[in-house]
Amino acid sequence: MPLLIRLVPVVFVLLWSTGFIGARYAMPWAEPFAFLAVRFGLTIILLALLLAAISWRAMDRRQAVHAMIAGALIHGVYLGGVFWAIRNGMPAGLSALIVGLQPLATAMLATAFLGERLTAKHWAGMALGLAGVAIVLAPKLGALGGVTAATLASSILAMLAISAGTVWQKRFVASGDLVVGTIWQYVGGVALMLVATLAFETQTYQLTGELVFAMAWLVLVLSLGAIFLLMYLIREGEVAKVSSLFFLVPSVTALVAWLLFDETLNAVQIAGMVLTTIGVAVATRKAQPGTRARASK
User: Fold this and answer.
1) Given 119, 215, 217, 284, which residue has the most CB atoms within 10 angstroms?
2) Tell me: the pLDDT tens digits for 153-183?
């Protein structure tokens, strides 16, 4: 069991990094807010069926509302912002770089609202991680034609939303039942996406194999698998350290794109991946027993 627990961050990064596959396949065939509303709705149905097979404990009304707020931020505003920006021309590499600032924003919020103490080692690790992300994504930043005030604001809003949602989850919801809390999260997310699609979209789509694949992948792998792992990591660890894992996502995504879509991957990008990995290792490494005691002498 300890080995499986240690593998949770690795599996989370691998699963989360595949999210771009669904976005890449789905966005030509469906509008972003309508697509996400259906995705979240299907996830709620599957989680409700899961409750019939497991033991669970209900949440009180206050905690359920907090879970809905966290879900509206993490699922609704974050994913809605990223999907909308990319559909409207924002280069995926630039959007990923902006969202890559999330660990820094989360660390600042965790310090302010959760009382987490960040050491110089942690800040140095995050600086290395951000530098590595910039190196990995640099070749993808050439085409900036889709960068407008609206798409830039959407990407920045998405980054701030997942940072705030992560801190909100840790502060108000972390002690609740994992499955029930996730259901309430998606209730918050689907409510926001329904309002957004009714206000700004036509709800039209073209049913294709790519769209069906993207929906199935994102529901089963991301909305269930990766999100459960993220909620577990938030519950068991410090938010700032958990968020540092997101630095690894662009590197793993670049590797997946190289394997599946024959996208280029040069030596400089590989060096950036190594730098990012070192940064995350520095930021998340636990102090050895006795280190603090020796340092205080």
Assistant:
1) 284
2) 898 899 899 989 989 988 888 777 888 999 9
